[in-house]
Amino acid sequence: MNTGEKVSPSDENTNKLVEGYIVALNKEDQAKRASAATSLGMTKDIRAVDPLIRALKDENKNVRVNATMALGNIGDKKAVEPLIQTFKDENYTVRRNTAAAIEKIGYCWAAEPLIEALQDTDEILRENIAEVFGWMRDENAVETLIQILQNKDENQNIRAKAARAIAEIQGKKAFELIRQILKDDDKIVRSNAIFILMRIGYKRAAEPLIPILQDDDRDVRLNVVTALGTIGDKRAVGPLIQRLQDENEDLEIRNSTAYSLGKIRDKNVIKPFIQILHNKDENLYFRANVAKALGMFRDESVIKPLLQTLQDKSETIEMRKWTAYSMKGEINENALKELIQILEDKQVDNSIRAGVATALGCPSNKLAVYPLIKMLLDWDEDDYIRANVATSLAETMDKSAIRPLIYVLLDDNEDWFIRSKAEKVFSMMTYWSIEPLLQALEDRDSSIRANAAMYLGKTGDQQVIHPLKKALQDKDENVRINAATALHKMGYLETTVPSEETSKERIPDRMAIGSPKYNMSNNQIFVKDKKLLEQLIQKITDVNPEVRADSAKAMGDYGGHAVDTLIQTLKDEDSKVRVNAIESLGKIKHQRALEPLINLLKDEDFAVRIKADNVIINLKNERTAERYIHLLNDKDKRIRANAIEILEVLRNKRSIEPLIQTLNDKDPEVRAKAAKALSRVGVITFVTEECGTDPYPVPCTSWTVGDDRAVEPLLQTVKDQNPSVRAQAAKTIGIIGNKKAIEPLIQIIIEEKPVIRCVALTALKMLMNNQSFEEYHGTQTQTNKKNVLNELTEQSVEPLVLLLKDKDKNVQNIVIDILEKIGTSAIEPLIRLQKNEAEAVRNNAFKALEAIKERESHSLGKLLEDIRSLRKRFKSLNFIPKDESK
Q: Which carries the bigger pLDDT value, residue 27 or residue 427?
């Protein structure tokens, strides 16, 4: 925009860059188009909006993905309608990024167009937008989603997506609605309703689900069996036992029923389980699953029948094997002795003995430790049994098992599969000691020393650093290389491998472990040849991208020697090569790679960005944060903005104060970025309750704890002249979760423009949901929690009631949600809303009253029944006579 001011040279350069990127959007090379879209998003120049909107229809999915992200970064509301049309895109990543872009632009601009799009004639668009509302969790869409769900002429997939979206938005509040569609004529809709109730994990869900066990459709019955096991309500045990014992039922359903009953762990099921276990006329696979379910109980009453089946020689080998595996866990002394006898009896089939070896792996089974050690060191024993023995020994967490496991681990002549299982010793060494490996580092046998050096690097323990540095002087080159590689992986950057001539350390006598077989030959399997590394460095520039990708992946085993080459490889034009280079740098864990990896967070390829982000999390440290904190004072606003983005990724608490100071930066973009960064730096999210169990755990209750230092400066920032800065500050306050923010947020809601008001309301809603009030601010008792809510009530109710007169339905519905959280003091205004002209507002207010009644045990039952009867009588409360609406 022309302000009449003199244009600086830097602005002229920016103009040229923007124009160049816009031209590049039309290049034939798809990689250049994708890169140009990303770059335009970084400039945040309004001139890029129209070209990027056109790029949403590009033939290449990477270009479309980057265009959606770029439009989100620019934040112009002009892009909302074209982005909504992008939900028709066949590519899931494009649709998901479109949702994120709309959220960045400001959902307040997009809510109405998105709801309207649910009425579009295009079924694909409607289906995808229904899914999007679930991602965004927008209460305003619920009414339209319910209409879709209840329309039996609608496409079944759209109805199913609408049901899931409603559950994502409302959680347990959606229970009654989802309960109704369990009786739907369409089996896909019924199955989705079952899945939703399982995800919600609501105990009340068992009651409506139990009758569905009689459903005509086999898939629906299978889904309900799984759901009942996940919900875990013991009322389902009787009906599930009937389904278990029904010989005419589908075998897969009976197997799933056994598993579900095992998860519920009601003792009433033990007797029917034992009957099936001993019934040899039943399907073998079914009986094996019942044995597994019995093993879940860990009860003395199930050990005896399982042991009988295991010892029954008339049983099939397969059944005895599966029974053995099902017994894994804590076992009483008498049963342990019998299992050890089976393990040591070489007349018993090896697959059964392998199962018994697995069953013994438990910290409480101390009686089994010595027999397991004896079998591990018996080289005439079956390799598969010894591999299971190695795993179980590590699981016993017994100190006496460490040395034998290391003994096997360091033996180059040992079977690779057994050695891989022996590596579990590292989980014990953090519990006990790494002394045996340190002793092995001084062994007379060079191959043992070399392997000890390699495995010491895997422990990550600081006390191994000095011994490894000493091993750099070892007379054997393999020991020196492994010691250097281990030190590199632990972050010691300048380690070099001395030549044999400079190594004059005398190697002490070997450690005594007590077996003549410990004398091993020098196998080169774990040692990397430096010449091979040189060949890989040459291949990293090969014309064939597959060759470059393979080379980049292989270089991860060469520690610090490969870092510089891999950093250069991060610029490769092929995304697979970049991904492999990132993975290798992640294995090496070299701090010098951190900054180049951070730059890849803006890479055009989604997989590259995700991989870089995962590796950065493991590499970040204090020194990195200091470097970027210093850049917050740079003269160039782009450098300051970039530094803030990196500090946001690093999430180091030392950056909080500098970021707070940056809230006063002269550039509004920098201030907005600083406000956003404070929503992540120093903020921890806790999940206090999970609904459902594996494989579908979902957080039902979570809260965030932010740093109090940021609250007061952010409260000042909500008065910033720039609307984007104010909006971001309000949102960050909501995330931090400090009650001091309530009054200023209400002032914003009352005084500011609609878009800021909507954001501030959302922030206030976040504050009301945030349970950090009771945990973080020292109010840990239920009584104190109520005191905090009372304080919120006094500050919040009256100004919020005034907002109920707002014409914007988004504002009205968010206010109702906040009033429901406040509770008692909000009852009167919620009752008055039953006379509101908008049916959606009346419905939401009524649901809020029901939630208050259920949560706080209010005597609202009679009143709610009166309201229901008035609705039936007059259909619309607009027509209730005055004397009856009191």
A: 27
